[in-house]
Amino acid sequence: MSDNAEGASKGAGNGFWIRAVDEMKYQGLTCRQLAQMAGCDETTIRSGLKQDSMPQAELAVKIAHALNRPAEYLITGKNKEGGSPYKIKRAKASVQRLSDYSDVVDSLNSIPPGVRTPILSMIKEIEVPYSQSKE
């Protein structure tokens, strides 16, 4: 498993570690850093990620505190503050992109479907080589 804790999967932890990893990514934290901040061993964090098991209540609270998030959010996925800052940031970026191209989308929507479909196909064909050249 990489040091940035990618690859956690849903399981018995009911998403606790999925949300913790989202927060770690958002904050740029590694497993080692989170463990230090939460006052536990790095192996405890890695084991939790690997097994996706719900941590003991005390550890869950320490991890939440280290991530500066409510324990309720990490445990249940719900809280009065809303979702993960990582997910909110991605959503805001998506909304901004939509806003940047709203006039183009409006223009495409005004074109009859029989004409619009080939135009969208051409755009999709252009997109693939462009995205591959960025790698």
Order of helices and strands: HHHHHHHH
Helix content: 55-70%
The Cα radius of gyration reads: 21 Å
Poorly predicted residue ranges: 1-12
End-to-end separation in angstroms reads: 23 Å
Q: Helix segment count?
A: 8
% residues in beta strands? under 5%
**Number of DSSP-assigned strands:** 0
Which word captures the global form? elongated
Mean pLDDT: 80
Class by alpha and beta content: mainly alpha
Write the SSE topology.
Layout: H1 16-27, H2 31-38, H3 42-51, H4 57-66, H5 71-76, H6 85-100, H7 102-110, H8 113-133
Please characterize this protein's 3D structure:
68% of the residues lie in helices and 0% in strands. With 135 residues, the protein is an all-alpha fold. The longest helix has 21 residues, at 113-133. The two termini are 23 Å apart.
Essential attributes:
single chain; 135 residues; mainly alpha; 8 helices; elongated; disordered N terminus
Quick structural overview:
The chain is mainly α and 135 residues long. The chain has helices at residues 16-27, 31-38, 42-51, 57-66, 71-76, 85-100, 102-110, 113-133.
